[in-house]
Amino acid sequence: MTSPSDRRAAGRARARALFVDLTPLRRSPAFARLWLGTSIAAIGTQMTTVAVGLEIYDITASTFAVALVGVIALVPMIVAGLYGGMLADAFDRRAVALVSAVLAWASIAAIALHAWLGLDNVGLLYVLVTVNAVAGTVVSASRSAIIPRLIGTDLLPAAGALSGIGTGFAVTLGPAVAGVLVAAVGFAPTYTVDVVLFSFAFLGIVALPKMAPEHDALRPGLRSLVEGARFLRRSPTITMTFVLDIIAMTFGQPRVLFPAIGALVIGGGAITVGVLTSAYAAGALLSSIFSGPLGRVRRQGVAVGWAITAYGAAIMGFGVVIAVAHLLGGRMQDAMSPDILPPLALAALFLALAGGADNVSAVFRSTILQAAAPDGMRGRLQGIFIVVVTGGPRLGDLYAGVVVAAGIAWPPLLGGALIIVLVAVLLRAVPSFRQYDARIPTGQLHDKG
């Protein structure tokens, strides 16, 4: 019979098991520095993402023009992801990350200068955002390929959850701060804050040890690309992590609707845009904080399927709220008022649920990719992964920008339903993904039919 003190100790142990595992930070000081620098820089990145959308909408009053921000950058970003991944496999990954980070920082500074000069040139903004997206894709691919070397594959779920905390905190705080700053002092000071915050990314990268490539690594080029394509063709389990994320982000990414929702449906303007964007990130942040049980999940493919299905259902719920608010008549208020709080709160709740589900999916998808792929292939696969993660929402921007002609609520309503159906079909069609066991990541990598 256990004593009261033993029961209390067991209760505390169970409670601790619910929270994120901090072991990666203790095992690798280099990982800890990289995580901290990346998390701080991400706050400014999210501020700029929201501010650019607001500035283009302010100049053009067009949701489609806002959607083009991502669409124009998509093809260059795909090229950057593929080539940047090859660079990360062929050269010192630390050096690749550092050079591309310098280019990303310079593009942010140019966006700030554009605003300070009052140019209001939408075309120039498209170019600068594209350069930033290209450089950021290479940084992310290199950095992600570095992580397994720093902490080992056994702590990848914990590292993914920590990454979710950094991203969730950034996307919760960044858009909210951007909304307030844009409304209070304008675009130029908002971008300038990002210039300062992005400098922290260099602290994590510079302090990394050298990350030399394998001795037989192929130089960037067609042979390297073909080798990566052949590996993916033999690995449907890894391919599924990409396909499922593309589906979720293409049909379930409503961010391009936020300016119109703030102006025409719910009201509140820039503040509403910040609240809705932050709500999504708050869900991701909470799911990462309470991510302890994720490290004990073995059937990670099945977990991805359930998480994305839940994501689709939450996006549908968001669409219902917007549809009802639109039917009741848009408030068209520039500032917050008691009338807009109920629909805004409900919309934010569904977005928080979507953010939590998306983060759980991301933790397992990145874990499967990093654990199952050989180190010499991780750069190329991470390049594809980053292209999918960042390119998928841009396809979602295009989807929403086109479908919004039928009504602002239609993109999330139709998209959420498509996500649920397509995930069910694909999970049945690819048995190796359903059967994937985290204990033997390479043992079930290839589909036996």
UniProtKB/TrEMBL annotation:
Listed SUPFAM superfamilies: MFS general substrate transporter
Transmembrane segments: 34-57, 63-83, 95-117, 123-146, 158-185, 191-210, 231-251, 257-290, 302-328, 340-360, 381-402, 408-430
Xref: Gene3D superfamilies: MFS general substrate transporter like domains
Gene Ontology cellular component terms for the protein in this record: plasma membrane
An example molecular function term from Gene Ontology annotations: transmembrane transporter activity
Main localisation: membrane
Membrane topology value: Multi-pass membrane protein
Subcellular localization, as worded in the UniProt entry: Cell inner membrane
Pfam families, alphabetized: MFS_3 (PF05977)
Superkingdom, taxonomy of origin: Bacteria
Matches recorded under InterPro entries: MFS_dom (IPR020846), MFS_trans_sf (IPR036259), TM_effector (IPR010290)
Keywords in alphabetical order: Cell membrane, Membrane, Transmembrane, Transmembrane helix, Transport
CDD domains cross-referenced by the UniProt entry: MFS_MefA_like (cd06173)
All residue ranges annotated as the Major facilitator superfamily (MFS) profile domain in the record: 178-449
Name of protein: Transmembrane secretion effector
Species assigned in the record: Okibacterium fritillariae
